[in-house]
Amino acid sequence: MSRQPRVGDLFRRFRQRLDGPAPHDVPPAGPGRARPRGGEELRVPEAEFTSYYGRPILKPPVWRWDIPAYLFTGGLAAGSSLLAAGGQLTGRPALRRAGRVTALGAVTASAYLLIHDLGRPARFHHMLRVAKPTSPMSVGTWILSAYGPAAGLAAVAEVATWLPERGAAGRARRLLPPAGQVAGLAAAATAPALATYTGVLLATTAVPSWHGAYPHLPIIFAGSALASGAGVGLIAAPCGQVGPARRLALAGAALELYGARSVKTRLGLLSEPYTTGAAGRLLRAGRALTVAGVFGALVARRSRVLSGLSGAALLAASVATRFGIFHGGVASARDPKYTVVPQRERLRRRQADPD
Amino acid sequence: MAEAHPVGFQWVMEAKRRGAKVFHVDPRFTRTSAVADTYLPIRAGTDIALLGGVVRYILDNELDFREYVLAYTNAATIVSERFVDAEDGDGLFSGFDPETGSYVQDSWQYAGRETDSGSGHTARARDSAAGLRHESHGARVGGAVQRDETLQHPRCVYQILKRHFARYTPEMVERVCGVGREQFLKLARAWTENSGRERTGVLIYSVGWTQHSVGVQYIRTGAIIQLLLGNMGRPGGGILALRGHASIQGSTDIPTLYNLLPGYLPMPHHADHPTFDAWVDGIRHPGQKGFWGNARAYAASLLKAYWGDAATPENDFGYGYLPRMTGDHGTYQQVLNMIDGKVKGYFLLGQNPAVGSAHGRAQRLGLANLDWLVVRDLFMIESATFWQNGPEVATGEIVPEQCRTEVFFLPAAAHVEKEGTFTQTQRLVQWREKAVEPPGDARSELWFFYHLGRRLRERLAGSPHPRDRALLDLAWDYPTHGPHAEPSAEAVLREINGYEVATGRPLSSFAQARDDGSTAVGCWIYTGVYADGVNQAARRRPGHEQDWVAAEWGWAWPANRRILYNRASADPQGRPWSERKRYVWWDEATGEWTGYDVPDFERTKPPTYRPPEGASGPEALAGDDPFVMQADGKGWLYAPSGVLDGPLPTHFEPAESPLRNPLYGQQANPARKVYPHPVNSVNPSPPQEHGQVFPYVFTVSRLTEHHTAGGMSRMVRPLAELQPEMFVEVSPALAAEAGLTHLGWAHLISGRAVIEAKVLVTERLTPLRVDGRVIHQLWLPYHFGYEGIVTGDSANDLFGITLDPNVLIQESKVGTCDVRPGRRPTGPALRDLIGDYRRRAGIVPGVPPPVMTTELRPPAGNTDAGPRENDDA
Amino acid sequence: MPDGDSLAGPLDPAPDAGWVAAGPRMGFFTDTSVCIGCKACEVACKEWNDVPASGFDLLGMSYDNTGALTANSWRHVAFVEQSPPTGHDTPGTRFLGMPGPRPPGRDTGVEERTDFRWLMMSDVCKHCTHAACLDVCPTGALFRTEFGSVVVQQDICNGCGYCIPACPYGVIDQRRGDGRAWKCTLCYDRLGAGLTPACAQACPTESIQYGPLDELRERAATRVAQLHARGVPQARLYGHDPNDGVGGDGAFFLLLDEPQVYGLPPDPVAATRDLPRMWRRAGLAALTMAAAAVAAFVGRSS
């Protein structure tokens, strides 16, 4: 009597995953790769814990690739708007133009990704029913709602020179540049919020390695946004205007590397998901690309090609970092060890010291 | 109980909250074990040895409630000197007739009453499952008996009991059952310490107990313990039978059984009961004590209810219309008859034998050899699609194109789609309303039978044939209502209750039934359920608005009595045994019995009453004879008649066992019913050879998530998904031994079938050390079949057909098998595999193994009179 | 505690959510010491709430074929088989059976168990005092009822999925093919009509008790004391403490082992508790970012 299972494959797959090597059973990566170099190496004690048939206690995020992609595009938009505003204020039109156009493209992609990820995309506007300070997603929605039109107007202003000089279009041609200036500055003003709220977005979950990383995520995302914005500048700007982008890249990379290093070393057991598996590989790639990008940007004084390559590396680094952070969190939610062990530790500390 | 009766189990948990100790005995660790105080794993089929050990523990340590035992049981009664105990007969009592494999019971009788057993021979009684008749009343026995109040007489029941169970020591319990000595003693201590004057203990069994070749004797052993400890007829005591379905108690009271009529009146036998008088006297035993003395009134009133105006004293109330038994018409005999082409048509109503009955293959082959089959059920069940989807189609034994059975499937209304009553195990009759209309063509059973009868009568109207008179003369006049002319269930309940023919006034007590045709009573024990024209079963007064007996919730037969034989809750003088356990007592001031419950005694008969010489019927019961349906008014530690396979329970191995009986040369119940039919076979057990071909013991039972053969659960999504696949539970040790892996496949082989199942390796099953060797037990749910949302092989296919002699219930809770990893073969290869096993085991289909396994000549009894031939008196 | 008063600590959630004249907070006390694992709660819930099938798979996790609380299972009965009986005669065999609560070789050895136990526990949404799912919901689909429970309004939910990782118990879940988030509603529709939630109504042994939370907490404390007195020292309450990381649960439990044995987090915390701190960190990062941008441009061009 052959009877194939009809539904419930989800659990079947889950169980098969249990049969295979569980995430925490993965043998340690090769020497010198996963190990944090120098600094305080937190010895993670051999995990002793019980769980229910090894099943996750938490529900891992149901978000697909859209959300880490949005983390990147959102940050890119923010970084680009800052670049554009800098270019605008310091008279670097190439930076301004590239920044504004990239910001519009990135924020458009962001909106698409966010809506696409919804279980009920047609109801995306329900996000605008309420404004809830306790919901980073609601806050983010309103930040994006403020930022998006500004960034859009700023980008549209760039096409003013293509408009005919007469009639309604002519009026627009006259009005757009000043409006663009204002909008560009407005976008730049909201950009840091756009870039960093996503750190709170991830941290305001029960996902152990996200919540545990709440002091660091905004730093990483801020740095990653700056670096990606700088990357746009490095790709788009002529050598004469590229200086600020280079400095921005340096600052961004510094923040990004510092933050990433923090989550990989300062969270105890919860750092483990960031150093192993897909997340570990992505974060290592991100670090390598960041270093390469910054190095390239610094040495490519006269080479537009090298400059562009450096910018591309920084963009790729940002993508890798975002996906790395995302997957690290997902992995930590999937393995009950990361839920149980730190919580038990916390309980033990509290019981030892009731205050 | 938690597993199969979770709703009833709430009261066990309530008792536990209040400090009761719960012991659970089961071959597997179940949900009941999980919340029990102590769990005892046991080898399936050895309960008599365990309980016999408790009996011995009680007697050896004189822990019986002596005052109760002396006054209310037959402990002091002296048994015939011709009686020889199984201890002296290597497992056989005196009177065994090897020819028929049954007992002549003369030598079991009380001293001086040796002829009380009538013919004494029980071969025919076995065919008619006569043991079942005694469900509500005692068997035939003389009232005036010799007694020794000191209990010292060597032939008094007390001493016989003591000798009979002397070898059931804790060591023997361990050796037979695999229950550790310490655990056994813990159980025995707890049971005895929580019984007596101040405390009572209850024994609860599930119907699995009845599905053994010694099932009735299991319950007898429990009854002996409860009587010795004074736990009968008292609050918090008793033996609770957990019935297998909603209202299965109701369908025993108003039976769907071939050998009973409503109210436990026996179905007449063509030879024994040629006339109404012969039939009635066969029930009431003229001159005998007890309430069956009024049987004539119950019988006449029943026939009056059947045939109304056509039933008159002149024509014996239409007794001639009643069908007669001619032999064994039990369900398994019928299946074999079906296979042999002796049965033309069959009705299946809410039953799924293709999955639920033992030896599923025989069931399906039988169904496939009918002319017509009517299946009324909620869903398209296996018993309706066997001709198309059954496993025999795959093996080529049933060819759909050639299967001659015409199946009529009629959708049935579920219990919430019709009104009527449920009668549960406490005899509580509860009315339920219709909640929703049945969908589509689904109709109630009541509707079906009423309209079937109506149409048959219309077809036969004006028939000149006498054979049609029984049908045409029926009182078939129920009011109907609604678009589908649904008969009134309340009108039926009113008829069951009974009424005065002249006035139509409902009776309020069965004492009002008359034998002159002036009353009509559908089921005399239910009289009162419609007293005063009020549906008493529909009462729903909440428990917190009444005392703890809650007499105004529903209605319990008989006479709304919640505990039977509750006269025993008071001492012989009529005073409560203890304040703590007061229930029913004699009120000296008012001169009547009173208490929380309806006294199970004549209300004004004082405790000091002694019957006059020559009295019979209820009048002959003394004021301290609490067991009012018993012919001697006593609880029977020793059953001189009524039980066909021995006056005392004796441990026999199951028909299929890997073990030689450690207690007696006689291996299995010598009186068990076996059918030498080619479709049937029994796996070899010692002393036969080749038992090792089927080295494992398997047992089946229920999961909470499913209901019996699955017709109501495998077809329903929220239930089906909770236990979605057939599985077999094995211990880690057996898994290692047989090479089984968790969630892998295994197939199990018996002499009848091969079935496959997923493996659950669990510590809840444990190997037992029995008689010096390790016995592995497997457990399977029997819910699965090949139809429904979730499907699987049927565990009952593994069983053969061996029956308890008293009630013709099959031994389907224990058998032997082999288990192998992987899936089973399909098609003809499956029969080949079974054939191979049979060859290796030396099984010849249709040739059952010898019943007698003792070398001793069966003891005939201590006098010259040997077993008598069957000489109908 | 800066401006985090309504994000942590004890409070009565319904008035806090703006209900005027709300009745007492209602909830569940699930006493696992009397649970018999009959799953009547699961079935009653599915029937009443018309919850779709959750799959027909034999999971091999004792008698648990439901697996977890999901969008399609709002009650889940966990079954835990623990430790072989001592003196068990199975020498030299390797246990090939179902995965136990402890991974092989990781026994804590803390408690020496002397008897085989089969623990059962009916899990459900905890209806936290500080419900992270509700607090992070960006559409207002999740709301606090007048009974103090947390309910998803299915006509509002747009399936953003944020509530799912936010739940520290892993309760709320997205329904495949539907996209929205689903969980126990504490039978909001029944409560409104003065009825008991379907699961509690169906529970034969009163393992699931429904009532005003204050009463339930008192009853639970008495029960624990009773069990301790009867020699069940493992009995402990879970989710009853208003000072815990979620401000106490509206559905709390009496357990006979560590919470994680049943698949419960040992010390759950509503992530929103740290929101003030997290926003500060984000603000700091944003300022740093702005400063870096300014510096990058101002640096040389001045």
The radius of gyration over CA of chain A amounts to 23 Å
Instruction: Using the alpha-carbon principal axes, give the shape of chain A.
Output: globular
Report low-confidence residues of chain C grouped into runs of 5 or more: 84-97, 99-114
**Residues in helix, % of chain C:** 25-40%
User: For the record, what CATH class of the largest domain in chain C applies?
Assistant: Alpha Beta
Please give the most extensive interface between any two protein chains, plus how many residues each contributes.
A-C, 99 and 87 residues
Q: Can you list the strand order of the major beta sheet of chain C?
A: 8-1-10-9
The sequence of SSEs of chain C as H and E is HEHEEHEEHEEHHEHEEH
Cα separation of the termini of chain A: 63 Å
Query: What fold name stands as the CATH topology of the largest domain in chain C?
Result: Alpha-Beta Plaits
Strand content of chain C: 5-15%
- The CATH architecture name of the largest domain in chain C reads 2-Layer Sandwich
Do you know the CATH architecture of chain A?
A: Up-down Bundle
N-C termini distance of chain C: 44 Å
Number of domains of chain A: 1
Question: How many independent structural domains of chain C?
Answer: 2
How much helicity do the residues of chain A have?
55-70%
Description:
The complex is a heterotrimer of chains A (355), B (873) and C (302). Chain A has helices at 9-19, 66-90, 93-116, 136-157, 167-203, 208-211, 217-236, 243-265, 272-275, 277-299, 304-334, 336-352. Chain A is mostly helical and 355 residues long. In chain A, helix 8 packs antiparallel against helix 10 (277-299). Chain A is globular. By secondary structure, chain B is of the alpha/beta class. Among the domains of chain B are: 42-242, Dimethylsulfoxide Reductase, domain 2 (3-Layer(aba) Sandwich); 250-324 and 477-537, no CATH class; 566-626, no CATH class; 673-841, Barwin-like endoglucanases (Beta Barrel), CATH 2.40.40.20. Chain B is built from 23 helices and 30 strands. In chain B, helix 2 (31-35) links the parallel strand 1 and strand 2. The two termini of chain B are 45 Å apart. With 302 residues, chain C is an alpha+beta fold. Chains A and C meet through helix 1, helix 2, helix 4, helix 5 and helix 7 of A and helix 3, helix 4, strand 6 and helix 8 of C.
